[in-house]
């Protein structure tokens, strides 16, 4: 019987962003199911920051890199190699280990031990810079990508004998296409639909862009779409909010220059590292959310926006349009900036004429509720033979 569960999460979960939120919600859900949870991470946890951003968590034990290793545990593949002993220690102390994204560590386990190890793949098989080479800008970014290429060889990928649960259908297809790995099933992310759901509040003439403030989120495309789509509606405001990283400063400067060039400075606000309550406030006050990130799995931000009564306008080249918006059933899609601007203008016109009903789109978020996440999580755990 499974009583103790360990989680491997190599990125920093004390910051803003989709990955930290997924990990926090997983821990909180396991807490709710009365499992004792441990975590392996190279980053010192800031419990107060996690609570402020996403809510509280309870951990029985945290496994950090020992001694000198901590200085070198910054990149995922390096961390997983250096923390082999910490991983095996955590593995032996738990009945089941859930590895977030997963690679390398399964090589340290015997055939029998692998039955107690599963991967929840929440990231795409290939990074954005692989799919969109134009994003490799600056010597620092190019250097990091070259290092990743050297460290992330075919041998680091999970074996075919490992159970991998994909975030969505898009992620599963990428695993198959790029790595020839089959998904054991799906585990959609938990969204706090119940806590953010729209209840008829009066909304402002406001559009939101929500996600980590980074180039791969293509916020610059969303700004262009906002500028084109609201050229006849100068009373509309754009709010950009999301987690900021050390790499965000240069991008924020570029976005500020773009906003100045488009002459929309008075209509744009940027909020780095917002709390969940701030996100909730902005989304409940907004009528539309723009999501321009391409070639990635579904985005949690789009689901939150739908629950808050926002009309979602997303690129068709991604999991959000395919799975969250149901190919247009619960929102709108675009192929390029020009089409995005035209669609945005169309949405505003239909909102003004009351042709669009928020409640139709809100239903699309219910699939990702806490209740459904708990149900699926229990099914997966109960299917583990230990």
Salient structural properties:
single chain; 386 residues; alpha/beta; Rossmann fold; 2 domains; 7-stranded parallel sheet; 6-stranded parallel sheet; 16 helices; 13 strands; globular
Any overview of this molecule?
This protein is of the alpha/beta class and 386 residues long. It has two domains: 4-190 and 369-382, Rossmann fold (3-Layer(aba) Sandwich), CATH 3.40.50.2000; 193-367, Glycogen Phosphorylase B (Rossmann fold, 3-Layer(aba) Sandwich). The protein is built from 16 helices and 13 strands. The strands form two sheets. The chain has a seven-stranded parallel sheet, with helices on both faces. Strands 10-9-8-11-12-13 form a six-stranded parallel sheet, with helices on both faces. Strand 1 (4-8), helix 1 (18-32) and strand 2 form a beta-alpha-beta unit. The radius of gyration is 21 Å and the shape is globular. The chain starts with a strand and ends with a helix.
């Amino acid at each position: 019987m499974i009583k103790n569960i360990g989680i491997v999460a190599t990125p920093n979960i004390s910051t803003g962003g989709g990955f930290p939120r997924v990990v926090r919600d997983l821990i909180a859900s396991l807490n709710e199911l009365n499992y004792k949870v441990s975590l392996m991470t190279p980053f010192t946890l800031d419990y107060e920051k996690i609570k402020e951003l996403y809510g509280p968590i309870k951990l029985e034990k945290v496994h950090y890199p020992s001694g000198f290793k901590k200085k070198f545990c910054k990149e995922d593949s390096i961390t997983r190699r250096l923390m082999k002993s910490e991983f095996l220690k955590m593995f032996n102390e738990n009945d089941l280990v859930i590895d977030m994204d997963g690679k390398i560590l399964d090589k340290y386990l015997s055939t029998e031990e692998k039955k107690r190890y599963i991967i929840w793949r929440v990231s795409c098989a290939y990074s954005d810079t692989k799919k969109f080479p134009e994003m490799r800008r600056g010597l620092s970014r190019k250097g990091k990508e070259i290092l990743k290429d050297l460290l992330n060889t075919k041998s680091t990928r999970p074996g075919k004998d490992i159970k991998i649960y994909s975030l969505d259908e898009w992620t599963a297809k990428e695993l198959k296409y790029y790595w020839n790995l089959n998904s054991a099933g799906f585990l959609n992310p938990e969204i706090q639909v119940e806590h953010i759901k729209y209840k008829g509040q009066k909304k402002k003439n406001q559009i939101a862009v929500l996600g980590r403030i980074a180039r791969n989120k293509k916020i610059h495309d969303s700004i262009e779409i906002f500028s084109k789509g609201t050229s006849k509606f100068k009373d509309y405001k754009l709010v950009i909010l999301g987690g900021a990283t050390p790499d965000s400063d240069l991008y924020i400067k570029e976005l500020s220059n773009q906003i100045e060039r488009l002459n929309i400075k008075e209509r744009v606000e940027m909020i780095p590292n917002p709390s969940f309550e701030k996100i909730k406030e902005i989304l409940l006050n907004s009528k539309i959310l723009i999501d321009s990130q391409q070639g990635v799995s579904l985005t949690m931000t789009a689901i939150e926006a739908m629950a808050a009564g926002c009309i979602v306008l997303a690129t068709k080249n991604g999991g959000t349009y395919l799975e969250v918006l149901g190919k247009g059933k619960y929102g709108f899609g675009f192929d390029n900036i020009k089409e995005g601007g035209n669609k945005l203008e169309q949405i505003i016109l239909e909102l003004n004429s009351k042709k669009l009903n928020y409640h139709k789109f809100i239903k699309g978020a219910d699939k990702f509720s806490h209740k459904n996440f708990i149900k699926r999580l229990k099914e997966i755990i109960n299917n583990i033979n230990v």
